[in-house]
Amino acid sequence: MNGKLNEERRIKILKELQNFYNKDFTFSSGRILGSMCTQPHSIAKEAYIKFLETNLGDPELFPGTKEMETKLLSFIMDLLNAPKSSAGLICSGGTESNITAIWMSKKLTGKSEIIVPESAHFSFEKIGSLMNTKLVYIPLNKEYFMNTSELKKMISKDTAAIIGIAGSTELGTIDPIPELSEICTDNNIFLHIDAAFGGFVIPFLKELKNNITDFDFQLKGVSSISIDAHKMGYSAIPLGALIIRNKKWLDEISVTTPYISSNKQAGLLATRSGGPVAAAYAVSKYLGREGYKDLIKECMTTTEYAEKRISDIGLNLVIKPTLNVLGIKLKNPSKVVKKLTDFGWKVNKMERLSAIRIVLMPRVTKDIIDNFIPDLEKACREVGEL
Ligand SMILES: Cc1ncc(COP(=O)(O)O)c(C=O)c1O
Fold first, then answer.
1. Number of the ligand 1 atom closest to the C-alpha atom of 93
2. 261-288 burial by CB neighbour count: b if 16+ within 10 A, else e?
3. N or C end of the chain: smaller count of CB under 10 Å?
4. Ligand 1, residues 99, 123, 192, 202: which to mutate, most atoms within 8 A of Cβ?
5. Does residue 20 lie in a domain region?
6. Tens digit of each residue's pLDDT, the chain (386 residues)
7. Dist CA 79 CA 77 (whole Å)
8. Do residues 32 and 93 both lie within one domain?
9. Which residues line ligand 1 (CB under 6 A)?
10. Is residue 10 one of the residues assigned to a domain?
11. Are strands 355-359 and 113-117 parallel, antiparallel or unpaired?
């Protein structure tokens, strides 16, 4: 094909791509308020593109990318106070990290049941179906976290793992993880903490505020933690990590790899891009722990501001928020979500709680909240909520 035709084809494809893109909501518009992702920090894009062709499934071809991954994991492990014996795996996000943790706990124990709070993310339902695992759901108490009295009754000889949530998907609640840690230590049970959302919030919030529940490896009963950089780590999709207390446990989820340069591979995926790893590494270097702390401070200030504005128009929250997630109680959340979509806003409905969710992510500013509140009020009036 000659150069002119090539160029014409390129322009045509880019135009078509632009048309697809134009149909999307964008984080940069400030109109997405319900998502746990956001437009990544600007350095993430540069880093991602630079490592586009790398494959961490074949690390001996990309030793530099592998070194970067190890450094990123060290940053995350430090954040979670992981001991020297620990190890980490980069995953595509919370779902894969949770799957991998339960896969490991089942292999370690040979047991088939996992105990989860009712607030658990739907990835655990997938786990139930994928790995022939029985899910035992524990009801929540009035603060919307796992009721530990009920939990104690449901522990059995078949329990492979107990799951605690540090930053629930619906309301950002943190389960009583110190108590779960004791229960799991006493009963010798694997304790997995799903901190996909809270992992990049709670360590910094603890430096800013008292009374934030402990959730990490400082609690000796905690066996593994899921944490996502593509949520509050301010980085690009897909990037999660699973950190485990004992690196020897990796053997349970490893296979030999006869056709590639390394001999063994742990985890679910084989071919995977170094792009998201580079993005998360660059953001973590750029911000450092101090930068993340400032970011969390800002998110929490905006959360408090939004909380006040919502209450000023006469709406109630499901609970006082711990993290930067607000659940607004409504009679008919679907109708309000539909109206808000008509007004150009994207928020999430939570039918189970009869509420809608707003997540005050790093790029959600007070100005955006000032634009949103009159539309929220109007939407609620039009459907008879106010
Ligand atoms: C607590 C929690 N765990 C797991 C997940 C799943 O993460 P991902 O969508 O990255 O697979 C989410 C997603 O919102 C979550 O909030």
1. 10
2. eeeebbbbeeebbbbbbbbbbbbbeebe
3. N
4. 123
5. no
6. 578 879 999 999 999 999 999 999 999 999 999 999 999 999 999 999 999 999 999 999 999 999 999 999 999 999 999 999 999 999 999 999 999 999 999 999 999 999 999 999 999 999 999 999 999 999 999 999 999 999 999 999 999 999 999 999 999 999 999 999 999 999 999 999 999 999 999 999 999 998 999 999 999 999 999 999 999 999 999 999 999 999 999 999 999 998 877 889 999 999 999 999 999 999 999 999 999 999 999 999 999 999 999 999 999 999 999 999 999 999 999 999 999 999 999 999 999 999 999 999 999 999 999 999 999 999 999 999 99
7. 5
8. no
9. 36, 93-95, 98, 121, 123, 165, 167, 169, 194, 196-197, 228, 240
10. no
11. unpaired
CA 231–ligand 1 middle distance (angstroms): 9
Q: Whose CA is nearest to atom 15 of ligand 1?
A: 169
The answer as to whether 22 is a domain residue is no
Range of the domain at 343: 27-37+289-382
Residues 109 and 252 in one domain: yes
**Domains identified in the chain, total number:** 2
Please check whether residue 131 lies inside any domain of the structure. yes
Please give the C-alpha separations between residue 87 and each of 30, 80, 303, 371, in angstroms, as whole numbers: 37, 12, 34, 45
